Amino acid sequence: MAFDSFNEFIAMGGHAPYVWAAWAATAALLVAIVLHARAERRQLLRQLRRRARREQRLGAEQGEAARVSHQSGGNRHDT
Q1: Cβ atoms 16, 10 nearer than 8 A
Q2: What does the pLDDT read at residue 59?
Q3: What pLDDT is stored for residue 77 in this prediction?
Q4: Looking at residues 17-40, what average pLDDT do you find?
Q5: Which of 19, 34, 54, 62, by CA, is between 20 and 30 Å from 78?
Q6: pTM for this predicted structure
Q7: Distance (Å, rounded) from C-alpha 17 to C-alpha 2?
Q8: Residue 13 phi/psi, 5° resolution?
């Protein structure tokens, strides 16, 4: 092992503030990336659900409009 004791490992030969700050920054960035990816995924899924509901609603409205048009006598250009 490169260090004789755990305290020497923590001290990192006098470079502890720089070493541990770098480790902390790296860990914080990795956590931030994971949280950001999860938030984007949730937002995307929410948008896709909204889009599916909107398309379903529009499809139902168009189907109903076609049914009403068909029941009312067919072609509107029969003048």
Answers
A1: yes
A2: 86
A3: 59
A4: 97
A5: 62
A6: 0.63
A7: 19
A8: 65, 30
